[in-house]
Write a structure and sequence with these properties.
Layout lengths: L2 H20 L6 H12 L3 E9 L2 E6 L2 E6 L17 E4 L6 E6 L5 E5 L7 E6 L3 E7 L6 H14 L2 E7 L7 H14 L5 E3 L8 H8 L3 E5 L6 H9 L3 H10 L11 E4 L5 E4 L12 H7 L1 H7 L16 H7 L5 H19 L3 H29 L1
Parallel strand pairs: 3-5, 8-9, 8-11, 9-10, 11-13
Antiparallel strand pairs: 1-2, 1-4, 2-3, 4-5, 6-7, 12-13
Length: 375
């Protein structure tokens, strides 16, 4: 056998081995084809399961390795390596480095709370965005809509999970709560479950099985308990013990990728205090699909849904088919998203300034007209 044939055979064998051992983490034929140029360079594929302070844990065909991220730390915060990425890693060495990562199919991004309004990527290559909402507190439908907008914008399928259903023993009341969220989340599965009793956990496991899911929600939403229930082990408790012995520190600020026994993987995230939009106009439109459908029937294409004649949205408000709260939430999220985008888009900033000046001039003219009538 020639050396080139041997190399080709060796590469093919290595690729097949990677495919078999990484399939549980989401590796497929398309990822393998995209990775081919890196394989030709002698690099090996792996999925990032955790990133922390310039290093990351990567699961490869040979097991989990610790790798340096020096070569994948660009200035753009949206292009840094994150949990869920498929990486091209050195086959050996000390230290080993992540040399690059494959193009993301989906990415869950929010804006940071910093004054610079930077985007922060929370997870990559996600199929389902599980939004955990605790039934131990009053439902905040506006916050649910905000999570949904980011979920849709990411390219993943959102799933709303109402946790701690055992705290709502009355089935009628629980049914009304589920219905309220379903109305707020068109096209989104809404499940009520209790990780404590196990009720509904199997249903969620079936929904998210076979793909990659990211678990999102505020602190106290029961995410850690839900993650343990889906995995079938006290994984989050084990992680806490590792904090005590000095391994795996900063668990409250990192994302971790875990294999589900029924198929698929789960990316667990820390509780999110703020859920800022980041260029999520399409996601907002999907959350409020009924409003955008109504707007298409307005007489004017640029209708503001305020006092214009022939406004289909205002008509729906008046006949009760569209709740006022939905329209106000829609407007609020669109305004917020516009402000975020304007901070990084000079053209849009200029358009907003022109719009503000025009509205100011119109308001001034209206006031002068009123004064003229009063004289």
């Amino acid at each position: 056998m020639s050396s080139s044939s041997f190399a080709s055979s060796s590469s093919s064998s290595s690729s097949s081995s990677s495919s078999n051992s990484l399939a549980a983490y989401g590796w497929d034929a398309d990822w393998e084809a995209e990775f081919a140029p890196y394989a030709a360079q002698g690099l090996v594929p792996g999925r990032v399961v955790r990133v922390d302070r310039g290093q990351c844990d990567v699961i490869t065909a040979a097991g989990t390795i610790r790798a340096d991220t020096e070569y994948v730390t660009p200035r753009d915060p949206l292009k840094v390596l994150c949990t869920g990425d498929w990486a091209a890693v050195d086959p050996d060495g000390d230290p080993r480095f992540v040399r690059d990562y494959l193009t993301r199919r989906t990415s869950f991004v929010r804006s940071t709370s910093s004054k610079r309004s930077e985007g922060q990527i929370l997870a990559a290559n996600v199929d389902h965005a599980i939004i955990a909402v605790s039934l131990a507190a009053e439902l905040d439908l506006g916050r649910v809509e905000r999570f949904l907008a980011l979920g849709w914008e990411s390219g993943a399928q959102p799933v709303v999970v109402l946790t701690k259903s055992d705290l709502v023993p009355d089935p009628v009341t629980l049914g009304h709560l589920v219905q309220d969220v379903e109305t707020t989340a068109p096209g989104v599965p809404v499940l009520a479950l209790s990780a404590e009793t196990g009720d509904g956990v199997e249903v969620l496991a079936a929904v998210v099985g076979g793909g990659t899911s990211v678990l999102l929600g505020q602190s106290g939403a029961g995410k850690s308990t839900l993650a343990n229930a889906l995995i079938g082990d006290d994984v989050m408790g084990v992680q806490a013990i590792r904090d005590v012995d000095g391994k795996g520190r900063h668990t409250t600020t990192t994302r971790n990728l875990l294999v589900l026994p029924g198929g698929g993987v789960l990316i667990d995230t820390p509780g999110l205090r703020g859920v800022g939009l980041w260029d999520a106009e399409t996601g907002v439109g999907q959350v409020f699909a009924e409003i955008e459908e109504l707007a298409a029937d307005c007489r004017f294409h640029d209708c503001a849904h305020e006092s214009e004649p022939g406004c289909a949205v205002r008509a729906a408000l008046e006949d009760g088919t569209l709740p006022e709260r939905r329209l106000e939430s829609y407007r609020k999220l669109l305004r917020e998203n516009q402000r975020i985008v304007a901070k990084t888009d000079a053209r849009l900033r200029a358009e907003l300034r022109r719009e503000w000046r025009l509205k100011g001039a119109e308001g001034k003219a209206a006031m002068e007209a009123k004064r003229g009538r009063w004289r």
